[in-house]
Amino acid sequence: MIRLSARLAAVAALVPAGASVVDVGTDHAMVPVWLVQTGVSAHVLATDIRPGPLQSAAALLERTGTGDRIHLMQTDGLAGIAPGAYDTVIIAGMGGETMVSILSAAPWTRSGVLLILEPQSKQAELRRFLVESGYAISTERLVADAGRIYPILTARGGVSPEYSQAELHLGRLEQIGTDPLFGRYLDAARAQAAKAAPFDAAAAKLLEEYDEIRRGLDHDHSC
Ligand SMILES: C[S@@+](CC[C@H](N)C(=O)[O-])C[C@H]1O[C@@H](n2cnc3c(N)ncnc32)[C@H](O)[C@@H]1O
To answer: Does residue 117 line the site of ligand 1, with CB under 6 A?
Structure first.
């Protein structure tokens, strides 16, 4: 059985049993191999925009004997994938802006599809796109891996509640606020905003919001 990093294990754990999955930007196809080895999925489509990663993926499929259950495809995002053919789309390990561009080109993902997203940057842009484009974020998770904290979220087509600026950056408080890593994640975001605040009014405003959330957490812990 393949061993996943903590980050990829947390992504894979969100895939429902029996899901038909596309893993976009699969690179070595670690998650697809784990999904079929564990029986979570019978078949997975693993895509990448570049041929090099797909060669690594093909080598892993060969080594693990999973090539009969994982189909490899070179494509940009979800281009060429028939709407309705898959019920779960994973996009992990890319910038939030790339995810926005992939999802903007595939509006069918608003109908009956579970998105599992692990953005490595521009998380606020991704959440803003989702809440303004007919998706509702259903889960927010944080995972620590090799000294970094990664946010992972799931979303489906739906009507979203409003988000504050801080929630666009951190996740909606009612979904993320009780995560054991939230305090550390908030403090890292706060430190970043504090650096920019003297020169940037938006960062200063964000810092105020972060401080208020921090006071709320401290109050909850002191009760
Ligand atoms: C850093 S790797 C992440 C691999 C794996 N998903 C993970 O989370 O460990 C990003 C992969 O996404 C691929 N990629 C980047 N933009 C893409 C796009 N628009 N469509 C498909 N794949 C893309 C890259 O070629 C690369 O293999």
So the answer is: no
